[in-house]
Amino acid sequence: MSKLKEVLASKIDDHRKRTTRLLKEYGDVKVQEITIAQTIGGARGIKSLVTDISYLDPFEGIRFRGMTIPEVMEALPKPEGKDYPYVEGFWYLLLTGDVPTKAEAEEVVEEFKQRRDIPQYVIDVLRAMPKDTHPMTMFSAAILTMQRDSKFAKFYAEGFNKMTAWDPMYEDALDIVAKLPSIAAYIYRLKYKNDEHIPSDNSLDMGGNFAHMMGIDNPYDDVARMYFILHSDHESGNASAHTTHLIASTLSDAYYALSGGMNALAGPLHGLANQEVLRWLQGVMDKLAGKEPTPEMMKQFVWDTLNSGQVIPGYGHAVLRKTDPRYQSQRDFCLKHLPDDKIFKYVDMLYQVVPDILKEHGKAKNPWPNVDAQSGVIQWFYGLKEYDFYTVLFGVGRAIGVLANITWDRALGYPIERPKSLTTAMLEEIAGIK
Ligand code: HAX
Known about the structure:
With 434 residues, the protein is mostly helical. It has 20 helices and two strands. It is globular and about 65 Å long. The model has no long low-confidence stretch (mean pLDDT 97). The structure holds N-hydroxyamidocarboxymethyldethia coenzyme *A. The site of N-hydroxyamidocarboxymethyldethia coenzyme *A has 22 residues, from loops. The site of N-hydroxyamidocarboxymethyldethia coenzyme *A (HAX) has 22 residues, from loops.
């Protein structure tokens, strides 16, 4: 058994006692009251999910296993000479809550290498899809296609045991996380690089190998490491994490669950916002026909978008009430590596003008930028200009968080999710409307 799996097994044993105690001795303690606005309004703020993998504070932003983004980037082991940590070491951290040593992280690197080749039948399915299929459709389909190999589904068919169900879920999760960069790179090169593919390099870690298979020079390897880590997890209520959790709660396996989660990520109010930011900026640049925008011009574009009834992509958040630290982290990267880039300057100008406009507009509860406002700029700078691919990159990262979560869901025996609905007449009665 790998060190990671051994540590995880012992953490699960300890943690089960805490969940059992809460349920048995304190199950009737109230967490909160719920309003009509929350019931109608997309369950906003309703505390009905549990995860220990990450926590999102509205004013501080995300913490992974209690650590801020800069703390994670600092603490985790890095490949020799690189600025960003092994994604494999981050996977270890999310699963166990422990910062791995370099040797422990590198053991996971080796384990991922063993599992990263894509089955031929997945390639056949991708190749059979119409060429204008959206990359997210291809990505989700590829994940779903691999369901036939699910160890969890086999385990269920052969006799399910609630106490050990996390083990095949973990094995599926590992198989999937290891393969996703290969699948993403295959889709990219099939669609945009004349169907010419670059075989994986066995000397490289996940981030390094992804950059290599994409055919993009370094430091894109560090971009990949940073990107996958930043996009991994945002506690459990966001649409992709929640969808994955919901599907897995039916004892569906990780392939079904993640494919569904990726379909949620593909919505423009969620992960697709990263492509929308670049699409929107391209529209601005086309209108300017090469001229530099002034802040006044930029303000006008923002107002035109709002007045036409559209949202400003990359701004606002359902939980956050300040600038997203994932945005900040990518901004720091841009300031170091591409301070003079034209699109970065546009994005930075947006940061100067959009919050005040959204405040004046008076609708958005959070006028500040989220992760998606900054991420496309970096990809564009390194030559990845096909912006409809950006959400796939988000998906590779998000898979790491949600798959760690559903492994723990099975470890703690969380039940099938089934909230209750009411009718409008019932709400009117509760409100005292005659
Ligand atoms: N531009 C214009 N209007 C906005 C807005 C924005 N960026 N953000 C919110 N609003 C509007 C909402 O559309 C809503 O309008 P209505 O009352 O007419 O329905 C109103 O402000 C209140 O919304 P809210 O409570 O502030 O925000 P929600 O929790 O309902 O929605 C969203 C959060 C992220 C979906 C929203 O801010 C939005 O649409 N942002 C733009 C799209 C985007 O960047 N999405 C990615 C978010 C991060 C993420 O999940 N990444 O994957």
